[in-house]
Amino acid sequence: MSQKGKITVYQAMLLFITATYTPAVRLISSVTSKEAKQAAWLTPFISFILFIILIFIIHSIYRKYKDVSFMDAIYDIMGSFLGKIIVFLYLITLIILLALYFRYFAERLAMSIYPHADINFFIIVMLGVVGITLRHGIVNIARMNEIILPFITVIFILLSLLLLPNIKIENLTPISYKDILPVFNASFSVTAIWVYVLFVFFIGDKIKNKEEIKSYGIKTGVFLLVYTVLMIVTSVGVEGYSIIARAPLSYFIVIRDVSIFGIIERVESILIATWLLSDFIIISVFSYIILELLKSLFNFNDAKPLVNVFIILLYFLTFYLAINVFELGAYSEKFAIPSNVIFGLVIPCIIWGVGKVRRKV
Amino acid sequence: MIALTILLIIISIFEIKNMLENNQKKEIVIFVCITIIIWIIGRVYISDPFRPSIVNMIMSAFGIQF
User: Fold this and answer.
1) How many contacts, defined by CB atoms under 8 Å, are there between A and B?
2) I need a surface site. Which of A62, A222, B31, B38 has the fewest CB within 10 A?
């Protein structure tokens, strides 16, 4: 099979890591603090175990279905009719998630640095950029991401280092056996974001050397574990769980207090730049996956004719999704987290189990 | 609403022309269906932007208080 127009597992994992950055910054610190309080920084360890299970499932499925998409694997394992229903449910879930990220992208800009701006402007600009990017395919997005991710990582590490002196150990302790259940419950919010790795592997037919999924998956898991723990430790350690749990942009609030040698302040603008880049990647990747899902569902040869109309659909869904940012927040916490865990972890487990019983995996 | 309709017609003419050149007849039918669905969603939103949102409908359907 032709390797042209395909990305490597390594590039796919990089796309996944960048895609997790924006929801992680927005959601993880506050949601985990609400549930697990000062023990919030332990939650990624539980999620790491679940992530590794998911990686093993993806690896196991792609060991058999080497050159097809995850949708084709679902059709073969579950049967064509049930498979189409499952893929349709994934399509709806991903469209709503994409509209959610689009709206958050604009609302966050308005909340943080442009309080009087019309979010319509941000949405139209981003839609234009994403529309152009989608026409050039996943390879270009992956190559762009190879520049974007190191930039985000360096900025994140620098900001974390600047925050280290402000961390108060009493904000992260004490930890006792009573924290086990809250930590376990809070870990679902982290897992809900890390399961996006499955969505990236939906386009398995566009990914080569899939025999390396396990090896790169474990490395990615370790990377995510380190950066998520660091994010929670710096947020909760500096401000304390009660403030972080209530703040809508918790990590932004923490970064706003950073000062470099008392000379340079207001470094949060650089955090906004990393958010925008991560938003661009998650929106582009999810849009690409949705177009591939549509292509698979309706047996299209090429998804490019759908790009323009899809962009218009996205514009209306972004506004129609929620009236205000409070609805978005409530949806993220109360519906999107359980729904992501079901679609990203539970359903793949069921598909893998059925595949084992039917000796297809 | 008129702007949306004109925009969708222009895009449809452009894309259908390309699909006809590539002999993608089945794709044209599905493309037209998807375009009509998008037009309906656009019309529903434009007619009343403050109607209950999708989030509101989903949360109410699942009985989630917010």
Assistant:
1) 86
2) A222
Q: Residues 307-336, chain A: which have Cβ within 8 Å of B? A: 308-309, 312-313, 316-317, 319-323, 327-328, 330-331, 334-335
φ and ψ at residue A258, rounded to 5 degrees: -70, 140
ipTM: 0.91
CB A287 within 8 A of CB A294: no
pLDDT in tens, A307-360: 999 999 999 999 999 988 888 888 988 899 999 999 999 999 999 999 999 988
Contact A309/B15, CB-based, under 8 Å? yes
Domain extent at residue A298: 7-357
Query: In total, how many domains does chain A have?
Result: 1
CATH code of the domain covering residue A288: 1.20.1740.10
Interface test with chain B among A320, A323, A334, A342, by most B beta carbons within 10 Å: A320
Given B37, B53, B66, which is nearest A321 (Cβ)?
B53
List, for residues A85-135, the tens digit of each pLDDT value: 999 999 999 999 999 999 999 988 888 888 888 888 999 999 999 999 998
